[in-house]
Design goal:
By secondary structure, the protein is of the alpha+beta class. The chain contains 3 helices and 19 strands. It has 4 domains: 83 residues, conserved putative lor/sdh protein from methanococcus maripaludis s2 fold, CATH 2.40.420.20; 91 residues, Elongation Factor Tu (Ef-tu), domain 3 (Beta Barrel); 50 residues, OB fold (Dihydrolipoamide Acetyltransferase, E2P) (Beta Barrel); 62 residues, Helix hairpin bin (Helix Hairpins, Orthogonal Bundle), CATH 1.10.287.470. The chain is 24% helix and 41% strand. β15 and β16 form a beta hairpin. About 3% of the residues have low confidence.
Length: 350
């Protein structure tokens, strides 16, 4: 009996000791958010900034018009009016193939036309007095029309023997000499129209819906730093399925002829100008899976805020939603900061 009482007293004593220790631990444990050392962080005041939504892509300068000058018929060059690097006008005669046989045939046909025309008029008068049959008159008329068709054909052959400038432009390099025999595949020279000029470049698929005609483009040519203006005038009818890009063309003035066709360019398109955009440093973004967060300073503590971001550059990130002007944005110590943690903030100038 005494042993049962001993065990009972021992159990009660252990229970009281356990309750006493638990109470002591609760009293000694610091409460949440109290007694924790505040960490020092840097921050900036969020404000509105003017922002241009742009993209810079490589491209190529194309001439407004370009052609390889070739003859439409084979033969010997008997006239060559080409000086390399000079400006020529549309329709100006640049070269002529030997056409002596065509001219002789044309001259004969012109004489035959006069004789056939006189014969047709005479038989027409005779038909009016029933001196000949209708069939005889029609034979005479058909002969006249056939001669006139031969004359038109000879004139067309003479035009093919001539090489004329199809548009105003500058002569490039000449590849033949007077007296040379050329075929229809022989390039006599090149003709380039370099004012205005065309820019050709491709933009990623995600920007395709933002491009429109008359959109402003700024570009630099070659290694130069001078920026030139241009305007979009056309886009391709479809996106390239291999590169997932859309080909764009713009037109630019080149009155001083400083830009040479074929040059490499860097083209910058300005999609949108916004005078009230919120821009923050990229280091302020704390990604969590597909969610983008930032920390702001609020009442002595760090507060996590989910944001929706827009365009990203090397120095800024556009915040579309989640931040307001005047918020104190934490930009340092983000690996140690937790939601609700006490912080001491040093505001830096943007």
């Amino acid at each position: 009996m005494s042993r049962k009482i001993f065990y009972f007293i021992l159990l009660v004593a252990l229970t009281l000791a356990s309750i006493s220790c638990s109470k002591t631990n609760k009293e000694n444990k610091p409460s949440e958010g109290r007694g924790r050392q505040a960490i020092v962080v840097d921050g900036v005041i969020v404000g509105f900034s003017e922002y241009e939504r742009t993209i810079t892509v490589p491209g190529t300068i194309l001439p407004n018009e370009w052609v390889e000058l070739r003859s439409e018929m084979a033969g010997k060059i008997v006239e060559l009016n080409i000086t390399e690097g000079t400006w020529v006008r549309k329709g100006q005669l640049l070269a002529r193939i030997n056409d002596a046989d065509i001219r002789a045939l044309l001259q004969r046909r012109v004489i035959e036309e006069k004789l056939a025309a006189d014969d047709e008029q005479r038989k027409k008068r005779m038909l009016e007095i029933n001196a000949i049959s209708v069939q005889e008159y029609e034979t005479s008329l058909n002969k006249l029309e056939a001669i006139r068709a031969d004359i038109a054909q000879s004139k067309a052959m003479l035009e093919k023997a001539e090489v004329r400038a199809p548009f105003d432009g500058r002569i490039g390099l000449r590849y033949v000499s007077p007296g040379a025999f050329v075929s229809v595949n022989t390039t006599i020279a090149t003709l380039v129209q370099d004012n205005p000029l065309k820019l050709e470049f491709a933009i990623p698929e995600r920007y395709a819906s933002l491009v429109s005609n008359n959109m402003d483009v700024k570009f630099t040519a070659g290694d130069g730093q001078t920026q030139y203006p241009a305007k979009v005038y056309a886009t391709d009818a479809q996106i390239d399925p291999e590169t997932r890009s859309l080909k764009v063309r713009a037109i630019a003035e080149n009155k001083s002829n400083q830009i040479i066709p074929g040059s490499y360019v860097k083209a910058t398109l300005v999609f949108e100008k916004s005078p009230r955009s919120i821009l923050i440093p990229p280091r302020a973004i704390v990604p969590d899976m597909d969610i983008q967060n930032v920390f702001v300073y609020s009442q002595g503590k760090a507060k996590r805020v989910q944001v929706r971001i827009g365009e990203r550059t090397g120095t800024t990130v556009e915040v579309i939603d989640g931040l307001n002007a005047g918020d104190s944005l934490i930009i340092s110590g983000l690996t140690s900061v937790r939601n609700g943690m006490p912080v001491s903030i040093n505001i830096k100038q943007n």
